[in-house]
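hey so u asked for the seq, here:
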Amino acid sequence: MKTRRDFLKSLMIGCVAALVPSIGFAGHRRKPNVVLIVCDDLNDYVTGMAGHPQARTPNIARLARSRVAFKRAYSNNPICAPSRSSFLTGIYPHTSKNLFWDKWFENPMLKNSRTIMEHFRHNGYHVAGSGKLMHHHLPSVWSEFKHKADYGPFVYDGKDRVAHPSVPEPFNSIGHVDGSYAPLSDVPYGPNDKDNKGWIYGTWGKVNKFKYVDEDNRDPTPDERNAAWAAKKINEFAKQENGKPFFLGIGFIRPHTPLHVPKRFFDMFPPDSLKIPVIKANDAEDCHYMDVFNSSQKGPKYFRLLKESYPDLESALKAFTHAYLASVAAVDECVGRIVEAVNKSPLKDNTIIVVTSDHGWNMGEKDYLFKNALWEESTRVPLIIRAPGVAVTGGIAEHPVSLIDIYPTLVDLCGLESDTRKNNKGARLDGYSLRPFLENPKSETWNGPDAALTMIYAGNKTGNDPTKQHWSVRTKRWRYILYNNASEELYDHDTDLYEWTNLSGDSRYGKIKASLKARLFRMTGP
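ran it, structure tokens below
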């Protein structure tokens, strides 16, 4: 049941929506266009986010300097399917009970609520997309859609998709997605035109050869292909006279595994000078993840297998970090190509650009190598919003926000109706417009909460019951974690940037912990 506050919130957004078309946007009477760029598994290894000192993302950094970057933006469910189902419908997982890998379009609440794509089309936009947006793709929500998600290039041994042969065992045994990393120049099984061994595209079922002769004579990667299509589409939109406003969604795969990108991106990070993630020995000892999950979970398993595949932990982490940083640099170039297309077009001053990721990725912290954890590395994501005429230039917003806020922000900025339900079986948006932070990044006043909420799924035995899952809230200073067995973790980011010291058992922090727990319960509801 919606509260009086929810009613007032929707009324307020509705009033803004009614006003915006009449006053224009950045001097334009036509509704603004939107370009939404979503990367996959991109953590804080982005220039300016202090995740890794050697990260090379000049294009994302340039976009951040041109408008507002959010220093503390978080995923609400740090694994692909539920994260995307949530922020692209604007509905928290615990609201819809779409908590993990179920298809969003079969969920009773979500299928009766408009996705952001459907809502923009409902409001007169041409909605085009390509790549990985929703994890479970539904073509009917788009006006047009070019390429489905393609995780390739993959390695093919003539019979099966496998991990790259250069990856040592036992990490190689994980398989062709999570267990594989290598530059494209390392052609698996060598040049061989007589059979299908080698690089293939990531389409499922049919084997489609990925041609690689050298860096200058090869097929485009799926991300490069999507970037080129999006840039071309922007140019087409720019040539249209009196056309509809457009919503363009592009989903890039990298740095999702397998970490296969062109050699020149690997060359940006010479191994001899490469820095490994900052990790504290035995950091997992005061955590409770292994109290609620077993060692077969991907995070601890992948860390263990990577460590066992190299002479020591440093060389293991260096190998994976090298491939991850290269993949981040590769996707940055693709982001840059789209932003450049907007900047060179007459649409620049009437086009909103949003760049983000569905969640982060732990790089070995707490003996964990994967996503889907409640710690900072898995939950924190880049979030940059360029809204000409609204967002200030070069602002950094430090207030905690989350992906759930993207949908209501775009509804607000574009002056759309606030009710996104298809019927009364749907749900209203859970998030809040980030406009106050775009206008004044230092603002402490907005209608949303003072903490970001994150949930991870506890397993099939818990069904779709939100009360049986694991939770975290992140305020400006604190991270509080509550597992479903009542175990707790508490980290003070003013003094403990890497979340090395769990303070939950220290009586001096009892009141703080109780306050954060109460806040978590307020945010999740009864």
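The chain is about 30% helix and 15% strand. The first strand starts at residue 33 and ends at 39.
lmk if thats what u needed
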